[in-house]
Amino acid sequence: PLLASAHENSCICLWSIQGNLLKELLPFSKYPSVPLTALCTDSSTKILLAGSKEGHIMRWSIASFLEDPQSSKNQIKEELCWSAHSAEIVDLFHEEEKNVVVTASIDGSVRVWQAMNGYYLGYFGQPRKFELSNISWLILPYDVPNIPTKIKEESTHMEKKSEYPLMLDSDR
Questions:
Q1: What's phi and psi for 114, nearest 5 deg?
Q2: Of 15, 38, 40, 67, whose CB is crowded by the most CB atoms within 10 A?
Q3: Is Repeat among the key words of this record (predicted)?
Q4: How far apart are the C-alpha atoms of 13 and 121, rounded to whole Å?
Q5: Residue 7: strand, helix, or coil
Q6: Total domain count for the chain?
Q7: Beta-carbon contacts of residue 35 (< 8 Å; ≥ 6 apart)
Q8: Residue 62 lies in a domain
């Protein structure tokens, strides 16, 4: 058993049921650190999803970490982040049978996304049926300007360093 808590500094803390802090996660994404407002996992607890105050969704793979939380080689990997709404996400859930993520925002919209790549599938109340079988093309809602971003495996939030730091050149 594990408890997850989302915090205003965009940190997710994973706790044992005895109250011991096991891991702190900071998202590695192109979006600035903003308060996290919603968390969910799939029923087998292999993925962790977080929604933010700015309308972003982040997805982590946590299966190997949960097998042995004490092992340093079993890390949690952030796999994907995308902009889902233009306003705060108030709830989200992962529907495993169809492999979709459903998000709800304070803007009043409820949207459906493909869980593996963050592709937009539609919204509740749209005139057409959801097409879940052929997800080969990318569309975005009118208020979402960015496509989903896959996080490279070697990327980490705290260790990202610039190869060419800015330096003052007084001769220029």
A1: -70, 125
A2: 38
A3: yes
A4: 30
A5: coil
A6: 1
A7: 7, 8, 9, 10, 52, 53
A8: yes
Residue 24 lies in a domain: no
Q: Give 25's contacts (C-beta < 8 A, 6+ positions apart).
A: 11, 12, 13, 14, 60, 76, 78
C-alpha to C-alpha distances, 98 to 15, 19, 125, 133, nearest whole angstrom: 30, 34, 19, 9
Please list the ranges in the chain whose pLDDT falls under 70: 28-32, 72-74, 133-138, 140, 142, 145, 147-148, 152-172
* E strand or H helix at 66: helix 63-67
Helix/strand/coil for 14: strand
pLDDT number for residue 64? 81
Q: How many CB atoms lie within 10 A of CB 13?
A: 14
**Which residue range(s) make up the domain with 60?**
34-147
- CATH assignment at residue 91: 2.130.10.10
Give the tokens for residue 91.
């709830």
Pairing of strands 36-41, 47-52: antiparallel
